[in-house]
Amino acid sequence: MILEGIRVLDFTQYLAGPTVTRLMAEMGAEIIKIEHAPNGDPARTLPFIKDGRSGYFVQQNRGKRSVCLDLSKPESKEILFDLVGKVDVMVENYGPGVMERRGLDYPSAKKLNPRLVMASISAFGRVSPLSHRTGYDWIAQAYAGFMHVTGPKGGKPHPVGVGMADVSSGVHAFSAIGYALFHRERTGRGQYLDISMVDALFHMHEVNVQSISLGNGWKPDRVGSNHELVAPIGVFKGPEGYIVIMALQLQWPNLCKAMMRPDLEQDPRFSQPGPRAKNQEELNPQIEAWLASFASDNAAIACLEEHRVPCAPVISPADAPKHEYFEKRGTLRTVKDPILGDFVIPGFPLRFSEQPEFPELTAPLLGQHNEQVLGELLGYSAARISALKRDGVMIEGDR
Question: Structural domain tally of the chain?
Answer without folding.
Answer: 2
